[in-house]
Amino acid sequence: MTAGRFKSRSWRRVKVKTPKRLITHYERKKPKRAVCAICKKELHGIPRAFPKELQSMAKTKKRPERPYGGYLCSECLRKIMKEKARNSGFSK
Amino acid sequence: MIDVGRLCMKIAGRDSGKYGIIIDVIDDKFVMLDGQVRRRKVNINHIEQLPKVLNIKKNASHEEVLEALKSIGIVVQEKTGKKETKGETKEGSKEELKEEKREKTKKKESKDKKKQKNN
What distance lies between CA B57 and its chain's CA centroid? Predict the structure, then answer.
């Protein structure tokens, strides 16, 4: 019999082969993939790990080393920076 | 459009959003950039060129570029030598930690000996 809390679908079921029989283990689901705030495209270079694992990771391993890294994709960043350049005082 | 002395903004990578001046045109794809950005070869697809052209020689030094940028009101913050001070403090703390560990191990050993005697 499963424990009551494992009947909830917020737990992932993993089948594990043992020498005697097939048993199911219950694991937490992984967090969702990081997406760009503008175009909702999947972001590269961001680990899909539990918060506890993220704690022990270096800052440079958690997001790209550029402005808005880990928040915007590189294409959207370029668009923003182009606008910024064209709206700056040096564009006249 | 691409010529020496043109003001640009970098739009890709770590230096994106920072201003620089073209010092040299390498070929139809790459230019040398200096200013707020680190002095380096840059793909022209990674910069947004602005209409302003500053009076600068080809392969001008970093100081000359900084002066030219200052004349139009762009200030470049130079890096401060923080790293040296940090290293010193870290080394000191490491030694201290080592000493603490040694003392702790000594205490443990003495405790163990006492226990053995009691037994």
Answer: 26
